[in-house]
Structure formats: C-alpha cells, structure tokens
Amino acid sequence: MTGPNPSILGRLLLGTGLSILLMVLMGIFIVYFSVRNSFIEQIDVDLKSTANLMVLELETQGGNVYHEWLLDIEDDPTRALDDLAQAWDVRTGQSVKSPALGPRELPRFHGELNEPLFLDATIGGDQSIRAIGILVNAVPKDRVIEVPDYEIPQFVFVLAASTRQKDNALRNLRQTLILVGLGTFVLCGVAIFGVINQSLVPLKDLSDRLDAREDNQLGRPIVISHDFPKELRGLVVGYNHLLERIEGVRKRERDFSYHAAHELRTPLSGIKIVTELALTRERSGEDYQNRFQKVDTIADGMKTTVTRLMQFARLQGGNEVLVLGRLDLHELLDTAWKELSQKIIKRKLSAKWELNSEHFIQENDAELLRILVSNLIDNAASYAEESSTIKVGTSDEKKHLILTISNTIPEKLEEDRERFFEPFYRADKVRTHGEGHSGIGLSLCKEIALTIGATINIAPTDEKTFEAKVSIPFSDL
Amino acid sequence: MRILLIEDYTPLRESITEHLKDTGFAVDATPDGNEGLKFATSHKYDAIVLDLMVPGIDGLKILTELRKNGDETPIIITSALDSMENRVEGLNAGADDYLIKPFGLPELLARIQAQTRKVYGKKKATIEVGDLVVDLNSKRVTRGKREIVLTKREYGLLEYLAYRAGEIVSRQEIWEHVYQDAEGGSSNAVDVYVSYLRKKLNEGDEPNLLQTRRGQGYFLDPNDGT
Fold it and tell me: For A265, which of B16, B22, B80 is closest by C-beta distance?
C-alpha cells in the first residue's frame, strides 16, 4: 500500500477502517466503564446506607458493647446467609462477624473517623467483594456516662457485598459490546468500501475512456460533463492543458517532418524530371554531361539540407559534444562574409563593420560558432533588400560579447518573431534552393546558441530593419 | 497548345519547359508569381501549370485571382505539399488538378492533355477529321493508311486546328496558341507553316482538309470546304 504504486482504495479503507475501529473501541470503553461505574456507585450507595444504619447498632451500655447489628442478622435467615459484615474492636483487636462469613475474614480497613472507605477485594480465595470500611465510636445507648473516665470504644466496621452478579453482568456486557463493536466495524467497513468504490467509479471510467481511445483521438481533450465529480475537474483540466501542450509539441514535430519531407521532395522531383528528360532520346555526350551536372547541383543542395537536418537533430537531441578551442570571432565573421561573395556581388550588397568587442578571442566551439555566424550572415544576405548594406557589429556588455547582424528588408513583416526559429519557416514562403538554403538555418542558430550557453534574438528594429542579436558569455582564456 | 508554367525551382522549370516544347507545346515559363499572374491575365493559355510556393504572389493567390476574374483556363497545381488539406484547399480554390511532387514527365503531360481535351470537348485521345487521325498521345498523324511525318511546329499547328475542327481559326489565334513569344516573327509565319502542313496532309487527289477563308483564317474540314 505504501509501495511504489499506493492504492487510493487501500489508503482510504485503511484510514477509515482504523478510524472506525478507534471509534468503536472508544464507544465500547465508554459504555463499559459507564455501566461498570454505575454498578459500583449503586453498590457503594447501598453499602454506605446499610453500613450507616448498622454502625448505629454498635452500642455501649454500662461499659458493655452490644453488637445489635449482628443480632439482627442472625435473627433474619436470609441475611444470615447473605450479609457479610465484621467489626473489630480497635482497642482489643477482637472481632465479631456475620454468620455468612463462616471461617473467612473480611479485610480490615478504614479511613478517618466516620469517613467511609471503599475497597474491592477477594475473600476465601475466589469470592470478589466490594466493601466499605468505617472507623466508628460505639454508640452509647443511654447517652449517659455511666462509668467515670470511661472511654467509648472504637470499632472498625466493614460491610461487604458480593460482586459476582455485577461481575457476571459486566462480563455479559463486555461480550455484547465486543460483538456489537465487531458488527459495527464490519458493517461500516463494507459500507465504506462500497461508497469508496462507487466514488472511484468516475476515475475508473475516465481511465477506461482514455484506454479506449483510438490513435487518431489521442489529442482530443476530455469533455467535463455536468455529472463529472468536482474533485476530478482539476485533474481533467490539468490533463487537458497537458494534452494541449503535447499536441503543440506533436504539431511542431509533424510540421518539422512535413517540411523536411517537402524540402526534399522538390529537389527529388528535379532529379527525377531532369533524368527522365535526359532519357527521352539519344543525346550528345556534352548534353548528357550538362544534364548530369544539373543533377549533381540538385544533389548538392539536398546534401546541404540533409547535413543541416542531421546537425539540427544532433543539437536538439543533446548529442553534440562541444570541442573547445581558442577562436577569433572577428576572423569567423570575415571568413563567412567572404564565403558569400558570389551572392553578395549578385545582390549588390555591402557591409558596414563595427567590430568593437575586446573579447573577440573566445574559448569556444569553433565549428558551432562558424555555423552560427555563417547562417546569420547568409540569412541577412538572402533577405536583405538588393543594393543595401548589412551591418555587422560586436561589442561588450555585462560580461557578454554582443554580436549584431542587421539588414533592411523590402517589406514590413508582421510575423511572430518566435516563428523565425521554427524549422523550415519562411516569412515570404519562398524557396531559395540552389542558394545554399535549407530552411533550418535559424533553427540551427537557436540550437547552437543554447548549446554554447548563448542567447539569440531576431527582431525588427524598425519597420524595414531586421536585427539578429547573439549574446555570448565571456569565456575564461 | 500554349502552356504557362509558373515554377521557381530552376531545374524543374527548365526541364518541364524543354519537354513540353519537345512534345509540341508552346510554353511560357516564369519563376515569379507576380510575373506569372501578369502572363496569365495578358495571354490566352490552354493550360497553366502552377507551383504553390513561388516568390511574389503565391500560387494559391494567383489561382484565386484568376478565378475571381472569370478566367476558366485549366490550372494544374504542382506542389510538394501533399496533405489532404492542401489538396482540398487547392481544388476548392478552383484548380482543375493537383499533382504532387515528385511526379514524372509522362504523368504531367497526360494531365495537361486531359485538361486541354476537356477545354475543346474531346474525350478521346485521338481526333478524327474525315480519314485524318491525330493521336494526341503518340503524336502520330495518319490519313487513311498513310502515316504523315510532321515537324514539331507542324504537329502543334495541326493539333490546334484538329481540336477546333469545323471552326474557322484566325491567324492571330494560331499565333497565340502555337507560337512562342520569344520566337519573334509575325502571324505571317502562320501562312508559311499552313502551306507546309497542307502539302503534307493532301497527297495526290485526296480532298483538301485544310481550307483557307480569306480574311478570316483557316479551318480543318473533311468536306473539302464545300
């Protein structure tokens, strides 16, 4: 029950079972001791009133002691058989006792003078009794001091009552209470088991409904009907919220696979059609060579896409191991720019360099930084307005090297900036095959930034300017 | 038949254009959506092959714009977007067909031919005018038991006239549907090719199938123009 999968039903049953057991035991205890105390009180009252009467019959007259109480007992055949009483002369220690005692002796005890004291005891080895003991002065019969300096004798008077009947009654009561308690416990247990089980039915229903879902219904939220238990609402709302998030992740994954397939389909289509066309008829060697060249170029583009996809998958899966080394960021920027010279010339772009960082020598992963830098510059060169200037800057800010690359764009973009980092997302839906674009450059940049502990942000700085800003923490050299 | 191809992926555009021209089509091709829409609205095409993801105006917008203006030219979408939603969206926007990349050239050709046949109300892949049979698939032409060997241009001209058999077709129409813009020349070139074609169609005392209506144009008719 307290193992790795604790049972709610088990816990509820154990908890309520223990509570009921405790309540039943307390009930039994309270009832039993109330009845017992009531019995004892009744016996004590009877003993006290009888003893008070009997001690009045311990008399003196003319220096003699008269045990009138004993005579009364002896004269009554019923009392002679039942009454258990004994009186001790304090001075002499001699005692007289009722005939029912026979050879047995009552315990001698008492409290202060005339203050009764009660005691439970056993006489004759097996008879339980309740007794009252009183220290009393014998009562002068004529209330006249007959003898000068006569000291009224003191007696310890003990009157007892057999408790056999009471003990039997209490024993029966105990048995009855135990049986009733046990019955109550079992009945309550069964009832509670039923109620708990019934209460857990919606949970089981919920579980069955989820189990029965087909593959195409997995993302569907659970509908909260009016008879749905309040206690499960939170769970269901939380579950639906989780589903929504999972669905979002799944959608992004689906989109990724979908776009990846799409990006590969178009060049694949190119390869198919170029080769089909080449095979439609006999051609010259040079013609075949030109067509194979086309196929080769397409294959190169596909290779770029696949390579970047692999890099992206490795970075996303956390499988990329950093290879740290000393690198010059300014040199990386310069190399990346030069590598794009063809595109830069074609699009008549120029660069404005503002390289002010003093921490451009970094201890970092040179290959990852190279990909990051070249993707950002390539992105700027691809989307910049023709004949415009791309600004590349570095600076130092709060123990971070800040790299900014900004370019002007032909049209204002009303896009969610986070979407720029989605794989294959294109603001203008334009493919740029053959220009080295795979559609995952910025997604790759984001993953690289995460891997090297940097942050990246892409946002318009005004209606027509777009800026990529990378913040790289200073490395210890 | 004149086809407009709007496809931004250069290897595809070039290869499809080359193949369509090889099979006797006149083709205008452009990688840009804006330019594509301009072509589509300023020329009469027998079919448009349209990629959805093109720079400028995207394919779906071009399609919507053309249909909104009442243009009923058959439009075949070619796209790598293969989901049912994409296909339904394209067809609901007014496309006549949706071809998923990668596709083969024979399939594209067959679909273009199916669409052009529909335009001219021809269900069969052969057109018969008297004893002249034009096989639209194999591009073979026979008259009686005689096979007629034609050049690409002659075949393109005959195919267009065969589609419109019985109707007078003006020089301008022939020029627009059979000739490339970039080829230069004028509609007078049509007369030259009509005369070449007539010589090949009529041999000996066979009835003249290709008639001239002075000032109006040409028509293909099995009844010797009578």
Answer: B80
| Fold (CATH) for A230-313 | Helix Hairpins (1.10.287)
A284-338 residue pLDDT tens: 999 999 999 989 988 988 887 787 777 777 776 666 677 788 889 999 999 989 8
Residue in B28, B33, B27, B37 with CA at minimum distance from that of residue B51? B33
Query: Which of A265, A277, A299, A433 lies closest to B17 in space, CA to CA?
Result: A277
pLDDT on residue B129: 87
Strand order in the sheet with B47-51: B26-30, B2-6, B47-51, B75-79, B97-100
B87 and B140 co-located in one domain = no
Q: What does the pLDDT look like over A402-437, one tens digit per residue?
A: 999 998 877 655 555 555 666 555 544 444 443 445
**Among candidates B10, B19, B53 on the partner chain, residue whose Cβ is nearest the Cβ of A277:** B19
Range of the domain at B173: 126-220
Q: Cα–Cα distance between A347 and A35 in angstroms, integer?
A: 107
Q: Which two tokens stand for residue A444?
A: 């790759």
Provide, as residue numbers in chain A, all residues whose Cβ is less than 8 Å from the Cβ of B107: none
Q: Which of A308-312, A398-402, B156-160 has the lowest mean pLDDT?
A: A308-312
Residue B206 backbone phi and psi in degrees, to 5? -65, 145
pLDDT > 90? residue A29: yes
pLDDT at A471 over 80: yes
CA-CA-CA-CA torsion sign (B80, B84, B86, B88): positive
At A217, is the pLDDT very low, low, confident or very high (cuts 50, 70, 90)? Answer: confident
In DSSP notation, A411-457 reads S-----GGGGGSTT--TT----TTTT--S-HHHHHHHHHHHTT-EEE
The CA-atom distances, in angstroms, between B218 and each of A237, B44, B135, B169 are: 75, 19, 21, 5
Instruction: Give the Cα separation of A98 and A106 in Å (integer).
Output: 10
Question: Residue for token digits 């290709």?
Answer: B210
Last residue of a domain, one of B119, B151, B182: B119
User: Is B215 within the bounds of a domain?
Assistant: yes
pTM for this prediction = 0.55
Predicted local distance difference test score (pLDDT) of residue A1: 47
* Of the residues B119, B146, B174, the one at which a domain ends: B119
Same domain as B209, residue B105: no
Question: Per CB distance under 8 Å, which residues of B are interface residues toward A?
Answer: 8-12, 14-16, 18-19, 22, 53-55, 58, 80-83, 101-106
- The secondary structure of residue B60, as a DSSP letter, is H
CA distance linking residue A284 with residue A289, whole number of Å: 9
| pLDDT greater than 90 at residue A12 | no
Q: How far is A325 from chain B (nearest CA, A)?
A: 40
Q: How many CB atoms lie under 10 A from the CB of residue A326?
A: 11
How large is the average pLDDT for residues A133-137? 92
Closest CA–CA distance from residue B12 to any residue of chain A (Å) = 5
- The verdict on domain A321-473 having CATH code 2.60.40.10 is no
Structural domains in chain B (count): 2
ipTM reported for the complex, 2 dp: 0.76
Q: Tell me: pLDDT of A245 over 70.
A: yes
Residues B164 and B210: their CA atoms lie apart, in Å, by 12
